[in-house]
Write a structure and sequence with these properties.
elongated, 3-stranded antiparallel beta sheet, alpha/beta, 11 strands, 17 helices
């Protein structure tokens, strides 16, 4: 798969206006942009999206977009934003519930005035409910949705709530666009980060909600992390699959455990895991990377990001695509052999303001007022 493969872009011709900052909204619009949509990122004139202070983070989520700097608290900025929305297929917003309406951009009025518009509202706890006005970030959502260990909680390395909300925001946009083909109407989609993350724990929540026993998928002693002789770690991911278990026991010379059935393995988990740990700790990682794949055992070495970037599979799949001077992660989709990814680099704050306002038919006087408000133009 070529690093520069010309990908199929099924959203070519659609325009997305984003009023969302930080992570979930930009993650969603990155997906839509890589699939071909023209994404216009509306940023505050003074500093832009707050995540610009982390250039790598901002670049990862906002490459391929166009940046327009508007102050929505000024008449000129609001008028310009209305003009952008009038020509958009999708509006993604990430304000707290009620803020968009207070700015004069009520989703109900926008979808009434522009029936084909798909409005996607991304918020913490959703547009209604008892927690709708609570402020929170990813860690707090992982805490309240049961993803953290209640006894010994640790800060997780991945912002799962942000990712989950971004994915569902992209699904909402695509659903709205597909639905309006038949109805002619886009509609207003409410995406709560809490709700989105709850979908990730569905197989744990449903048994609890119905008084059913929890599954024991992670209780197989062959499912876990194990230290090797050279201080590295490997993962084994055997989940009650007896053929994998027998193959592992053969490689570890634990033949007396090979025929122990799954339920008994779970009941004797501590004892059996100790035996596995002892055998694995006797050899370095290179040994296990030779014998485990050849035996067809489900495993993976624990890698840091630098090793991952240098490794063969990331490149073999063409997951890193080069645009300008940087490499970016493409979308995890391959369409007819080609992979959608970014087409342009990271926009400078307000770089496309004049260009986009002209396309939207913003009157010259309004456009001039908007440009005067860009106190921190960086280009």
């Amino acid at each position: 798969m070529s690093d520069r493969a010309e990908a199929v872009r099924p959203l070519e011709g659609y325009r997305v206006v984003s009023l969302a900052e930080q992570y979930p909204g930009p993650f969603a619009t990155m997906i839509l942009g890589d699939l071909g949509a023209d994404v216009v990122q509306v940023e505050r004139p003074r500093g832009g999206d707050p995540s610009r202070v982390f250039p790598g983070h901002y670049a990862a989520l906002n490459r391929g977009k166009r940046s327009v700097a508007l102050d929505l608290k000024t008449p000129a900025g609001l008028e310009a934003c209305r003009a952008l929305i009038a020509r958009a297929d999708v509006l993604v917003e990430g304000f707290r519930p009620g803020v968009l309406s207070r700015l004069g951009l009520s989703p109900a009025e926008l979808t009434r005035d522009h029936p084909g518009l798909v409005v996607v509202s991304v918020s913490g706890f959703g547009q209604d409910g008892p927690y709708r006005d609570r402020p929170a970030h990813d860690l707090s959502f992982q805490a309240v949705t049961g993803l953290l260990d209640a006894e010994v909680p640790v800060v997780p390395p991945v912002a799962l709530a942000d990712v989950a909300a971004g994915l569902f925001a992209a699904i909402a946009a695509l659903t709205g666009l597909a639905g309006r083909v038949a109805s002619g109407h886009g509609g207003h989609y409410d995406v709560g980060m809490f709700d989105a993350l709850m979908s990730f724990v569905v197989t744990r929540l449903v048994p609890t909600a119905n008084g059913m026993p929890a599954d024991t998928l992670g209780q197989d002693p062959g499912y876990g992390l194990f230290a090797t002789a050279d201080g590295r770690w490997i993962s084994l991911s055997i989940a009650f699959e007896d053929h994998f278990w027998r193959a592992l026991c053969a490689e570890l010379r634990l033949e007396t455990l090979a025929d122990v059935p799954g339920p008994e393995r779970a009941a004797r988990r501590d004892e059996i895991r100790a035996a596995l740990s002892s055998r694995i700790a006797a050899e370095p990682l290179t040994h296990w990377e030779q014998v485990l794949p050849s035996a067809g055992i489900a495993y993976g070495a624990v890698q840091d990001l630098a090793s991952l970037v240098a490794g063969p599979h990331l490149h073999g799949r063409g997951l890193l695509q080069t645009v300008g001077s940087r490499r970016y992660l493409r979308q995890p989709l391959v369409v007819n052999g080609t992979a959608p990814g970014p087409r342009t680099e990271v926009p400078r704050l307000g770089e496309h303001t004049e260009e986009v306002l002209r396309e939207a038919g913003v009157p010259d006087a309004t456009g001039a007022a908007v440009l005067r408000a860009e106190l921190t133009r960086q280009y």
